[in-house]
Amino acid sequence: MNQRLPEWLTIRLPRPDTIKEVEGMMRAKSLHTVCESARCPNLPECWSKKTATFMILGDTCTRSCGFCAIKVGRGLSVNPEEPADVAKVTTELGLKHVVVTSVARDDLPDEGAGQFAATITELHKANPMTIVEVLTPDFKGKRHLIKIVCDAHPEIYNHNIETIERLHTIVRPQAKYDRTLSVLKQVKEIDPSIYTKSGLMLGLGETKDEVVKTLKDLRAIGVDAVTIGQYLRPTMRHLPVAEYIHPDVFKEYEGIGDELGFAFVASGPFIRSSYNAIEFSKKVMAERLERMDAPKLPQLRLIQ
Question: In which element (H, E) is residue 180 found?
Answer without folding.
Answer: helix 177-190
